[in-house]
Amino acid sequence: MALTFRSFAAVLTLAAGLPLVSGCTTNPATGESNFTPFMTPGQESAIGQQEHPKVVAEFGVYQEKPELNAYVAEIATRLHGASELSSQPFTFTLLDSDMVNAFAIPGGYVYVTRGLMALANSEAEFAGVVGHEIGHVTARHSAQRSTQQVFAGLGAAALGIALQDQAVADLANMGAMAWVQGYSRQQELEADQLGIRYLTRAGYDPLAMSSFLQQLGRETALAQKLMFQDGEADPADNWFSTHPRTEDRVAAAAQSARATVSNPRIARNEYLQRIDGMIYGDSPGQGYVRGRTFSHPELRLTFEVPQGFRMINGNQQLIAINEQGAAIRFDADQASQGQAMTNYLVNTWLQGRQPEGLERIDVNGKEGATGSIRQQGQNGPVDIRLVAVRWDAQTVYRFMFVSPANLTAALSEPYRSTTYSLRSLSASEAAALRPLRLRVIEVRSGDTIASMADRMAFDDLRRERFMVLNGLESDRDLVPGMLVKIVVEG
Q: How does strand 366-377 pair with strand 436-442?
């Protein structure tokens, strides 16, 4: 809808405390009046249709086990049917990402990652996450946020100017992921309350939403520990980072709602059996981290980072960090055919800045170049060594080795070793690589957390990983006959 000066005047009337005569509707989910003149439900749907392909292109759909996608749709459809928008079409997608996350964008598009699915320990816990995201849609939180953002951008010059539909087009250009940033705590609590409503209507145990929040808290603490950030800010790729929560209020609401559900559905064993065999961690298209080694079966390359570094693999780059604040970034770029790597490093990568010690190098038969620069970091001077390696006619692989100046000398040789460990994988080596997978096994008499953790395919923190994955706090939680998840290779 076009917003004319007349309807904009209603905003000023509202601000003056006078009755609002247009642009306000009662939300059937919340029962509250929503003032969202900049985005109608039809426009939300159009934006969702525009942004959905971008989300799929960014993360990919998990397609290895089609039955899992069908299972997600089954759970989500049950919850959607319990919502106030059951007559409107929704789209539910399982993304091929190891991030522990879930989100929704305008128009009824709801996404969960296989990383989050792996962390949940029952169908009810997983349903709690989906119900929460449906709650964001039914409460029209994206439309509310867009209205607030437009108002925030209106200055004195906007007064008396007719706003046309271009305002909505500008909002659409925010990008799909922008819609899930910055929900207020009140909006999160509202989505939790609606999620609990849909859980109870669908017959699930609403306490599962509270138990999964605790599970997320343990996962966040482990992620911080893996990143040498104990007690610091939440990792960026965690559900808490985009969904600030108040756990005690959620627990109280869930406990109250539970009294209204007879024989609530939890479905722990069924859920675990369904996710048995699902890829855990990196997919083949992302490459695999195994200890200090990164190998990519599709790109046919491998290298090894120094002792004491831990790797975090992303869609576009790989980051390795150590406890002293040093870091390595590995990514790819394009260079024109025939461009010397020294020229690429100076003119393309550094955009004309001249590094120290610029030289041509040979990396296992591939042309490369290296040089270093010094910059001022938050905690003092930082040295950055740049390495560019031409892999084929157009592809350049790049290392950026970062070290606090006082560690540069000590890390010089380890960084050099990483550079020269970059090599091609043979066809047989690439074919031998296998992803990590979840395996669901039965606890037997005599099993302990320690014995189970020994079966986890990790080099470090195996006990912590096993306990977080299964929501366990001590050996008392292990009961013979129960099902638990472990992570194995292949």
A: unpaired
- Which residues does residue 488 pair with via DSSP β-bridges, in sequence order? 437
For residue 166, the enclosing domain spans 5-275
Please say whether the beta carbons of 293 and 371 come within 8 A: no
- Tell me if 484 sits within 8 A of 470, measured CB to CB: yes
Provide mean pLDDT across the span 12-28. 44
User: Tokens at residue 276, please?
Assistant: 């048995």
Share of the chain above pLDDT 70, in %: 79
Domain termination site, one of 412, 430, 448: 430
- pLDDT exceeds cutoff 80 at 114: yes
Cβ-based neighbours of 288, under 8 Å, separated by 6 or more? 281, 282, 294, 295, 296, 297, 433, 435, 436
308 and 230 co-located in one domain: no
Query: Does residue 267 sit within a domain?
Result: yes
113 and 68: one domain? yes
Query: Is the pLDDT assigned to residue 147 strictly greater than 50?
Result: no
Residues 6+ apart with CB under 8 A from 477: none
pTM assigned to the model: 0.80
What is the overall mean pLDDT for the chain?
83
Q: What is the CATH number of the domain that holds 402?
A: 3.40.1000.10
**DSSP3 helix / strand / coil % (the chain, rounded to 5):** 40, 25, 35
∠ Cα 400 402 406 (to 5°): 155
CA count, 13 A, side-chain hemisphere, 147: 19
Per-residue pLDDT at 152 exceeds 80 = no
Compute φ and ψ for 107, nearest 5 degrees: 95, 10
Helices (H), 276-404: 341-343
What is the per-residue pLDDT for 50? 92
What pLDDT score was predicted for residue 182? 58
Backbone angles phi, psi at 357, to 5 degrees: 65, 35
Give CA–CA dist 399/389, Å, rounded.
9
CA 244 to each of CA 108, 138, 178, 188, 216: distance values in angstroms, whole numbers, following the listed order: 21, 19, 16, 7, 12
Dihedrals φ, ψ of 124, to 5°?
-65, -40
Which pLDDT tens digit goes with each residue over 87-96? Answer: 999 999 999 9
271, 123 contact by CB (below 8 A): yes
Neighbours of 455 (CB within 10 A): 13
